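Proteins fold reproducibly. Consider a sample protein:
=====
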Amino acid sequence: MIAYRIQSAGRDLNNLLAPEQQYSFPMNQDDEMIRHGVSGCATLSDLAAYIASHAIEAPDPILVRIGGPLSEDTPCDEDDGEVLILPTSAELIEDDEEFFALVSTLVDMHWEQGLSCSDLREIAAART
């Protein structure tokens, strides 16, 4: 499976391929919610909506494409498009200006109009 994610530019992409580092940690720091697998979304439009509605932040963010089998674990935000992958490949997507512009637009829609992640996913899919 292919998935997309954002992460800090300071995180080495090779770390995504290390099995001992293939875990997702919830933003609320609840250790009971740690999941096996690297978090991402199956499409760029799903990722844009997810980031916008969940206030996902990364210092100096980069866009990454990961590939590998799905994890056996259930993502915390599966209903909002989150998937968990056990990456065997990871690559930087360098042409990301259009993606981050879409995220910015969706953030405004979420906070100003109260649109849900589901609403934002539909809007993003129509724009990509």
